[in-house]
Each structure stands twice: as structure tokens, then as C-alpha cells.
Amino acid sequence: MSCPVCKSINTGKVGHNAYYCADCLLEFTENDGEIAIYYIDAEGSSYALRDKDAAAILVKSIREGNDLLLQESIEELIIKS
Ligand SMILES: [Zn+2]
Questions:
Q1: What are 29's strand-pairing partners?
Q2: Measuring CA to CA, which residue among 45, 44, 41, 50 is closest to residue 5?
Q3: Fewest CB within 10 angstroms: 28, 33, 40, 50, which?
């Protein structure tokens, strides 16, 4: 399955309906066509991202090495539980 965020095929299955993108470093799950995207931080906590657009913003800030932006913006990108 290709990555819903960057369309890379550089993905691996990590669990039942769960996949990991080696390019975005994001996990995603697919259930009946519904895709959920997760960011896993350095401590291993996972955050459910709002949508593909939120995921793309997050990936961009990680790629640019902008950890400060990441800390400030992640609250707006995740689904609060
Ligand atoms: Zn990806």
C-alpha cells in the first residue's frame, strides 16, 4: 500500500491494517477505506493527525529539522483525545 501522505511505496506493514512510511516516518492504518495517520515522537508517544494536510505540514517541518515549529504546531495538527 502506498503512503497516503507522500505517495511513496517505501512502506511496510507493522500490524493488522497498520503501515509505516519510511519516507514520512509516519504510521497509518486503513479500515474499510478510512485512513488514519499517526505521528510517533521520540519518546514513542503516538498522536492521531487530523488529516492528510496536517500530516503533510508535520512531515515538512520534520524534514526541515524545525523542531521548534513542530512543538508549537503539533497541537493544531492532532486530534485531541
Ligand atoms: Zn510517506
A1: 18, 36
A2: 50
A3: 33
pTM: 0.85
Cα of 81 to ligand 1 centre, how many Å?
A: 24
Q: For residue 69, what pLDDT band results from cuts at 50, 70 and 90?
A: low
What is the distance in A from the centroid of ligand 1 to the CA of 56? Answer: 9
Mean pLDDT of 21-26: 93
Q: Are 14 and 32 in contact (CB under 8 A)?
A: no
80 Cα–ligand 1 center, Å: 22
Q: Could you give the C-alpha distances from 31 to 14, 16, 18, 42, 71, in angstroms and in order?
A: 14, 10, 9, 26, 29
- Residue spans of the domains in the chain: they are 11-77
In angstroms, what is the span from residue 72 Cα to ligand 1's centroid? 22
